[in-house]
């Protein structure tokens, strides 16, 4: 029998909080019956919701606060002016050992700033990264960074590669994930200097993952690699462009199937097939952006998601705790240190 | 009656040259009966194809050469070692006034290098850019740069904005195109410093286009703006990611409609509707990347396209010549010079 695991929740973050937070908890408990939750937020709003749910009060504790980080707030303001926000307190619960991980659907910038300040980075990691997983023609793919670091150097890329590889191994369960660096061409001479330098080191170093080399934008959803490493600017644009194209397809498909009486009729028959397609790309299935490289598990849920999406973000956090994501990262970096691979600014030759 | 217009063709560029070049010419003549062509390439291969076509020899001239730029060739090698390649000679025909524009389905890097060297940039333009148009939920969108300039400064962005706006006006026929700068957020304080600087100038300068501000990746196919301005690295990744997602959708739709007997049957009815969707995103409709900012019209066709796609690339070149794309660019920059807007390195304050 496994021991109970506690997740801290910023119960006030997201467009539909705290309602979907409570509903998400109920859903995830069906899959993970040993998990307990601490809800940080407004007791007046939370208490009635917890009381209403069946047995909810048995595995949910409320920690009251009336400070909340809004979506419009600058990260620096959240950091300086709101030491007791529901987001800050949930992160502190991880630092203090009261919870094994934290999930928030609130302000991403504030979550990253607070998590960095409170939890600090893991040994060997210069800068944390935001990662997510995406569908592909082969299997799910991890991509990072998605916006935490607009500019990256060679060391950042190497650290992202290792973190992505560990995520693919321990959370997605791939035995030998393959890493690719996102670039504008596959040839060794293409792209920014720091990308070519990172590729050269990844090619030669005895890293735990297999390095494919450079990949291009179209390779991401073809599933050419399992881990896509890029800087936060490019990753953010690529991810949002992919989301935009996905929305565009949904739009033109629905437009086409409403364009005539005949196409409306054909839709009635095609409906179940189209539903299968929609399920495969359901953004709720891919909800949960991981803040990797911190001394604690931190997962960001999409702000506009529903209970099912929030439950999936909770599931990601639970998996990362259960499969020892951070411990594996620490071990990988210790091994590399022994092998004297220059991966951080401190150990890199001047 | 309009006078004849001549387009120079690199008849040996692309995976299926010279066959699709000839077929493309035939198709485009149906739309533009006044256009003549000079084919640069191997006479032995070209002559039989021209003789076979009905009246083809009336509007097609062959200029023999046996030097060809391959896809694997480095741009510098094409520039230095092959002064008489079919690509180089076709570009020189534009410089010498024998042709009004050039189209090639060959090596993009070599085409850009040769075109820059032979044609030089337009007055006011520091660096040419690669542009294309894309479908969106509203109407077609122009995006640039797509890979000519991996790193861009503020002036480059301003010049791209003007070139994109002129393209949207004179080729897509939009009366008042709106320009957006691709970034990781819409707020003024987001993103790289040079992006914020470019946005500040675009906001205040009395430019011919309307400036929307920053847009994000998902806004591209939503059609939030008519012209998407970005650096060549980001633009290349965004475009290829979009292509990848598009391919992914085609793949999962076809997989779903083959997954059971019932879905196969429903496909029979849905086929005409799905064909409409496919037509709307047909890459051949969007074939033709424009090398903007050069002293001559240069269009790159996709290397793997067919006759219809090649004809569309020809159509883009013909439209750019017919609607005076380059003359409009020159006029816009002259106007700005009078208004003393700092747009090039020469006129920018130190």
What can you tell me about this protein's structure?
Two copies of one chain form a homodimer. Helices cover 48% and strands 15% of the residues of chain A. Chain A is built from 13 helices and eleven strands. Chain A has helices at residues 19-31, 43-52, 56-59, 75-81, 86-95, 108-119, 154-170, 193-204, 217-222, 232-257, 261-280, 307-322, 325-338; strands at residues 5-10, 35-41, 60-64, 101-104, 129-134, 141-144, 178-182, 210-215, 227-229, 289-292, 297-300. Chain A has an eleven-stranded mixed β-sheet with strand order 3-2-1-4-11-10-5-6-9-7-8, sandwiched between helices. In chain A, strand 10 (289-292) and strand 11 form a beta hairpin. In chain A, helix 7 (154-170) packs across helix 8 and helix 7 (154-170) crosses helix 13 (325-338). Chain A is globular and about 60 Å long.
How many beta strands in the DSSP annotation of chain A? 11
- CATH homologous superfamily heading of the largest domain in chain A: Isopropylmalate Dehydrogenase
Structural class of chain A: alpha/beta
Described by the principal axes of the CA atoms, the overall outline of chain A is globular
Strand content of chain A: 15-25%
Gyration radius over CA of chain A: 21 Å
Helix fraction of chain A, binned, reads: 40-55%
Give the spatial strand order of the biggest sheet of chain A: 3-2-1-4-11-10-5-6-9-7-8
Order of helices and strands of chain A: EHEHHEHHEHEEHEHEHEHHEEHH
Produce a short descriptive summary:
Two copies of one chain form a homodimer. The first copy, chain A, has 350 residues and is of the alpha/beta class. Helices cover 48% and strands 15% of the residues of chain A.
């Amino acid at each position: 029998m496994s021991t109970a695991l506690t997740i801290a929740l910023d119960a006030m973050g997201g467009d539909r909080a705290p309602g979907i937070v409570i509903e998400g908890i109920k859903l995830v408990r069906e899959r993970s019956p040993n998990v307990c939750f601490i809800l940080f937020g407004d007791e007046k709003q939370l208490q009635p919701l917890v009381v209403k749910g069946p047995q909810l009060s048995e595995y949910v504790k409320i920690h009251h606060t009336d400070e909340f980080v809004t979506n419009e707030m600058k990260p620096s303001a959240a950091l300086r002016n709101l030491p007791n926000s529901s987001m800050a307190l949930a992160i502190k619960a991880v630092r203090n050992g009261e919870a094994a991980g934290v999930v928030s659907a609130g302000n991403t910038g504030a979550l990253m700033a607070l998590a960095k300040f409170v939890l600090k980075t893991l040994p060997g990691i210069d800068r944390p990264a935001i990662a997510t997983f995406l569908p592909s023609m082969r299997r799910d793919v991890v991509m990072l960074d998605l916006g935490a670091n607009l500019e990256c150097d060679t060391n950042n890329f190497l650290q992202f590669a290792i973190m992505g590889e560990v995520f693919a191994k321990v959370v997605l369960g791939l035995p030998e994930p393959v890493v690719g660096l996102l670039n504008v061409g596959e040839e060794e001479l293409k792209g920014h200097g720091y990308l070519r330098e990172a590729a050269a080191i990844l090619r030669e170093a005895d890293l735990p993952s297999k390095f494919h080399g450079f990949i291009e934008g179209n390779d991401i959803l073809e599933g050419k690699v399992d881990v896509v490493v890029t800087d936060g600017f490019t990753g953010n644009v690529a991810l949002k462009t992919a989301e935009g194209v996905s929305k565009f397809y949904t739009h033109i498909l629905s437009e086409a199937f409403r364009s005539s009486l005949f196409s409306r009729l054909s839709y009635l028959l095609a409906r179940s097939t189209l539903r299968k397609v929609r399920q495969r790309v359901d953004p709720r299935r891919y909800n949960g952006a991981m803040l990797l490289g911190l001394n604690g598990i931190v997962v960001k849920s999409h702000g506009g998601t529903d209970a099912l999406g929030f439950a999936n973000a909770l599931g990601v956090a639970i998996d990362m705790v259960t499969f020892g994501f951070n411990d594996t990262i620490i071990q990988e970096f210790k091994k590399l240190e022994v092998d004297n691979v220059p991966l951080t600014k401190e150990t890199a030759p001047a």
